[in-house]
Amino acid sequence: MPNQVNHEPSNEPSNEPQTSRRTLLKMGLASASTLSVGGLLAGCGGGSDAVSATPAPAPTPTPAAKISSFALAVLPDTQFYARYATSGESNQYQRHYGNEPFAAQTNWVARNAQALNIPFLIHLGDVVDQVGKPEQWKVADSAMQVLEVAKLPYSILAGNHDVLNDLDYNGDQSRGTDAQRVLANEPYLQWFGARRAQRQATFGARDPSGFHEYHIFTAQDQRFLVLSLSWRISDAGIAWARKVITDNPTLPVILVNHQLMNIAPDAVTPLETDYGKMLWEKLIRDNDQIFMTLNGHHHGAARLTKTNNFGNPVEEMVVDYQMAYQGGNGLMRLYEFDLTNKQIKVLSFSPWVPMKPADTLNAFDRAVLTEANQAFTIDIDFAKRFARFNPTFGVGQVTVASSLVEQARAMVLKGYTEPAVVEPVVPKDADDYPKVASTVAHWRFFGGADGAAVAPGTRIADVTGANPLVRDALNVNGVKNAEAGDIVWSTDRHRLSSAPGSVSFINTDKNVPRLSYFVTDAAAAINAQTFATTGYTIEAFIKINPAWVNSKHAWMNIMTRDGKRGDLAGFNGGDAESPPLLFAISSLREVQWEVVPDVSGARGGLASWSGEIIAGTWVHVAIVNDPVTHDTVMYVEGAPVLRNSSNVVGLATLSARSPWVVGGGSWDGERADGFFGNIGEIRVASGALKPAQWLTARRS
């Protein structure tokens, strides 16, 4: 992966896209459709005691014609499944669900391979999240062993998270490729080296670097070649891949790579990458045998059909669920090759979701995805498409009773009912939210005309009356080029926020540095609060500006506490120049909640992370810290994120006069990393509030 996360109509005008609550994640997992699986029921009614009738015999159903079909299982990036199943990450999956998604995926495939005519499984790379953590490799090792024990062959490749130096492609093949690696040091080659690959009955060979491999499998009397290329293939690796194809001149080729195609911000439109274009020019376009490509890395799902030098289509598909709920929620794919009906059918599903305890399920737990970019059919006349290099390609044995993806869908959904979606209620007025006695500060940003500047010195009232915010003076503490119009009033808001507006931070540029922000007074009571014994809940409504770019806006702050964390007694973590609290948006548009706890002795920063947030979309973020366990859980649009921290005691402060900052942060004592987008209301409360008490709920 690039190490990197909508709503029903309101009664009031809103600039927000009118899409489902479930589409907050980039891959667009939208609201579930009702799946009805049933057969024809023939019934005859009644009569009476006096009169009876002999029913006509029911017609004998005509058996459905058998087809020639097989299916390939595909595992997109498993990195978070490997990471959060380790003790180093508090065994998140086992603790919350009693089982783990990676093992659930491979067990499901092994158990159903015969019934679903699955001859082969393809892994798309990013096997683990942190290449230097052996415990993550052990999780992956154990999960993939399930396939080996079941004698189900698979291909695997290294993603960028699986190599020690994960430089992205910039046109320079002299840096970051397999040719520049010290092979003896690479964990991927130690855990999934050539000897292990040779256990697969389908194994053909690996290239001299050991990173790239090919397999040949047979299904329905037809042979296919799977060519799996690891992260950043060298020119020598490409030459090796070309020779593999040349040496197998009659075989249709499925090219598997970690990165090839990307996805646009709308979460469905395909985008070509420079690396993918390079592979197209150097490997794909003049090799007619390559009819299909698969890759992960980029979050979501999309497909693109390109035409090669021979006038034939090449189907390119990207799929990666790591930024979906729970690190992917066990989602994977089945590609059915229906040779009889000349189609490739795609099923996106999770074998893990139906295994989760019923009391953990929520609206994000979808066992089968139904959106157009998740469930689709590609029409392909196999014999015609392959005729130039394999004129004898045929349909094979007609042995399959019915569509394999439909059979798989029924298997997954058997006995499982997706949780009902409870549509939230939009506010009736500006006061329609739950009041909680534990509120420490509640800032609601409205009061000026839409688009008008929020003048420096403007005070934002705190609902409690104790901790107002003020827009700070321009161009102080290292800020340059800021103007009054860099913060404006806006009527735009999250549809579940009862506050009638927000403030919009514009013209932010971290390179200048240009930013504007609000601060509490030095004497504000909240400055001294640490919440060490009470726990806390912090809520914010945010919307990232659609013009967000990494170079100007990475690590922008929603809210911080002033000071340098390195000045805290006992601090021994990283980024000592940062504040003790970071409520920010990362370089990959993830929500970052990172705090230094209020404890004595050695301490560093502890973090929770969301998935990628879609720019231009309002989201509600809640951070809940339990006063007993001190577990911290981040919720985005009501869904708990996977990457959370345990035993986080309070929020450290440098002093009782260190202000809170909204819309900006600091670095090494100077203002930095201003927000770019809209911030609606923010509330800070002591104690762990329940969802029914959040600002997205309504007053009693």
Automatic annotation (TrEMBL):
Xref: Gene3D superfamilies: 2.60.120.200, 3.60.21.10
Region Disordered: start-end pairs: 1-21
Pfam families given in the database record: Laminin_G_3, Metallophos
Enzyme Commission identifier(s): 3.1.4.17
InterPro entries cross-referenced by the UniProt entry: Calcineurin-like_PHP (IPR004843), ConA-like_dom_sf (IPR013320), Metallo-depent_PP-like (IPR029052), STPP_CPPED1 (IPR051918), TAT_signal (IPR006311)
Top-tier EC class: hydrolase
Calcineurin-like phosphoesterase domain span: 98-299
Keyword annotations of the record: Hydrolase
Molecular function terms from GO: 3',5'-cyclic-nucleotide phosphodiesterase activity
Organism superkingdom: Bacteria
Protein name: 3',5'-cyclic adenosine monophosphate phosphodiesterase CpdA
The organism of origin for this protein: Duganella phyllosphaerae
